[in-house]
Amino acid sequence: METAGKVIKCKAAVTWEANQPFSIEEIEVDPPKAHEIRIKIVATGICRSDEHGVTGELKEVQFPIILGHEGVGIVESVGEGVTEFKPGDKVIPLFATQCNQCPTCKDPRSNICFAEKAGRAVGMMSDGSTRFTCKGKKINQFTNTGTFTEYTVVNENNCAKIEDNTPLDSVCLIGCSFTTGYGSVVKTAEVKPGSSCAVFGLGGVGLAVIMACKLSGASRIIGIDVNKDKFEKAKEIGATECINPKDSDKHIAQLLLEQTGGGVDYVFECIGNTDTIVSAICSSHVAYGTTVLVGISGVSKTITFDPMLLITGRTVKGAIFGGMKSKDSVPKLVSDFNAKKFDLDKLVTHKLPFDQINEGFELMRTGKSIRTILTL
Ligand code: CND
Ligand code: ZN
């Protein structure tokens, strides 16, 4: 490619400081260094975690920054030592690193990579620098990805090659919401056929959980949200019933305990609110219920609950990216998607050109969208 080895000037949405609108700017993207890949992003989803980036609630955020972590694109060029990828390959950037060398990558129980934890500064590549510049200032990159830009650079441990015939559109959801929801059900909770499930929060992540509960053969799937406009879609995807906690004088946990005769088998918290996390644990079956924490709370939030809740036999778990090893699982899920084993388009309510990123975020903030996809 004629751009290989050169700085690329392109369009990106820069967040200069907390709680500011995205600013569409021309940026410079450096060529990939050793073991890095430069990617032309084609589509990217808007996730609540990006909004946590806007508000600066995540410790992974230092401004100015290019947010976005749910993208799909095409390799433009590769740095020295890269053998797995070549220009023209279709890829999904991975916010969850998989180096395959560290003890946790080698352990089938985990998807937390210690290569990343050991060395990488917030918003930087592994050598402690960033590949983005705008108006003479260095710009950070969100969670190893940074997809709100026409071009980004990622480490080879943060990239998955996907099938050549994949349409580059809603498949970007496999880069975050779908896999997070799917893995939470299949890998972290290991939902059994015939069981009861409850899902707190019916956004893109919660609906992906519902989709996976249905695929796992759950017989009852209860959706919970304070926004009743989310119920229609949730039922279309697989919820057998939906509850708005605001509609009852009883506490939501009390309601669920009553309606299930002792508690729900598997509860998924997909909001990240400390109150609903405790409600989720209380709603799970007293003797063998499992609660999976999926939603992300802001920095230094804590929860308190009566330890007897766990002494009776409940389990509480949590996972990033559903507990799925990113590089191993993403190509397989993409091929399942291409084989029509699940329908990602059902999670997509809006498609907008990249320039309308602020409108896309407004749709999420006002609860009007499930997932908005920006096309570049
Ligand atoms: P989104 O904002 O689209 O959905 C959240 C839903 O929760 C909305 O429908 C709200 O109406 C609803 N809600 C809010 N407050 C309450 C409440 N008190 N009671 C009931 N319902 C409520 O978010 P999303 O689906 O994009 O993401 C959900 C969470 O998952 C969020 O915290 C995000 O940061 C996190 C997440 C985690 C991971 C991971 O790897 N664990 C990956 N991606 C996103
Ligand atoms: Zn590792």
The coarse overall form would be globular
- Which regions contain 5 or more consecutive residues with pLDDT less than 50? none
Give a list of the ligands. 5-beta-D-ribofuranosylnicotinamide adenine dinucleotide, zinc ion
Assembly state? single chain
| Beta content | 15-25%
Mean pLDDT, to the nearest integer, reads: 96
Q: How far apart, in Å, are the first and last alpha carbons?
A: 20 Å
Helical run tally: 11
Number of strands: 18
Report helical residue fraction.
25-40%
Query: What composes the largest sheet?
Result: 7 strands, mixed
Overview of the structural elements:
The chain is of the alpha/beta class and 376 residues long. Helix 4 crosses helix 5 and helix 7 runs parallel beside helix 8. The radius of gyration is 20 Å and the shape is globular. The model has no long low-confidence stretch (mean pLDDT 96). The structure holds 5-beta-D-ribofuranosylnicotinamide adenine dinucleotide and zinc ion (ZN). Zinc ion (ZN) binds next to helix 2 and helix 3.
Could you give a quick summary of the protein structure above?
The chain has eleven helices and 18 strands. The protein has 376 residues and is an alpha/beta fold. The model has no long low-confidence stretch (mean pLDDT 96).
